[in-house]
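fyi for ur records
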Amino acid sequence: MNGSTDRQDGQALRERKARIILTGAGIGALLGLISSYLYVRAAEEQVEGDAVPGPSVSTGQLLAVVVATIGLVRQIAELGKPKKGDKGDKK
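which gave:
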């Protein structure tokens, strides 16, 4: 290959990486917004108009959400790896 083709391949790879990262950030922001809205709505329904703040989140509940989030992130990271038996697998 010549230098021009290598530069074009590198540029295309950088553009693809940027597009994937921006898409992931957008999806993450959207999921965060939806989750926050649903949490606030559920807390408001629980209080039903009282001036008392909504229910607090226990440490156990927060830990369960964190563990589930870590599992989801690991699954997403695994999507980028080639499957066993694929042509791109060099093992």
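Residues 3-79 form one domain. thats all i got for now
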